[in-house]
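Entry type: protein chain
Record version: 2
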Amino acid sequence: MNEARTRPLPNIRSLFIEGRLWHDRQNGNTYHAVSIEVNGKWLMNVGITYGYEDHYLQTALEWLKKWQLVHEDTRHVYDLKNTMDVYTARNYTLKRELFKDTMKGKKVEDYYHQLVRIEALKNGEF
C-alpha cells in the first residue's frame, strides 16, 4: 500500500481507539460505541452502532475519514501503524456504560466543542 495514501495529518503522533461493546441477549444483537483520542487527548465519541468483535475499529476509521483526519483510501486502522502509534482496546460492558456523549443521531451544531477540537488538530494546535 502506498504510504502517502495512509498518511494522517502530520501532527497526529498517536491514536487510541476504545470500543465498548454490549450484547442484547433478548434479540441476539451486539452494539458498540467508540471513543477516539489523539495525542493523548480526547477527540470524540461515536456510536451506538450495530456491530460486533472489531467492527468498532471500522466505525472509528469512518469518522476519521469523515473529518479528513486520515486519507480516504485508508482501508484499516492498522494501516496507520507505519506513520503513528495506534492503540486499541475492546471491552464488553453493560448498555448503561456505553459512551453517553455520542454524535450518533444528534445535530452537528450540538457538538461544537468536538468540531473545535477537530479544527485545532488540523491546524496543529491540539
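Comment: The first helix runs from residue 3 to 6.
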